[in-house]
Amino acid sequence: xxxxxxxxxxxxxxxxxxxxxxxxxxxxxxxxxxxxxxxxxxxxxxxxxxxxxxxxxxxxxxxxxxxxxxxxxxxxxxxxxxxxxxxxxxxxxxxxxxxxxxxxxxxxxxxxxxxxxxxxxxxxxxxxxxxxxxxxxxxxxxxxxxxxxxxxxxxxxxxxxxxxxxxxxxxxxxxxxxxxxxxxxxxxxxxxxxxxxxxxxxxxxx
Length: 206
What we know:
This protein is mostly helical and 206 residues long. 74% of the residues lie in helices and 0% in strands. Helix 2 (10-19) runs antiparallel to helix 8 (92-124). The model has no long low-confidence stretch (mean pLDDT 80).
């Protein structure tokens, strides 16, 4: 429904779900489009959110050790859930089974619910009248909140919110999201500098 509210057709919505099998990237893309952002800006934001899957893939490639011919197809299913299930298994065989079952079931259910949601959005007509433009941000917050367990994570999230909201009036739609991604390296750099400064003071005391 969020995608339909962003102006995508039923075919485009289903194609996006089939080809970009990572929820955060999909929501980022349709959110940027809904805000009036250009397709390249929206795609860039979705790309950066999906980069983490590349790191999952590096670890899973060693764990699963799949044949070369299968790897390009398996890469489509490298997401948070398949990585978590696979890495939790005690043997390579069970890791492969966990990856297959999790990836297949989620892929089928995700695309089925996408189709049903898009059909439902077409049935209700004007999605803006129902406030569906808030669905994407609400889903992001629901997914993100339980993950903010440390002070560093909460600091990164807070800075990202300040950057994203503060730059909305001055930058094109979709660009504030890209700038907000700088929150993580900035916070980590600041913590590293602070740790180094404490180390220098400790050496001076000795």
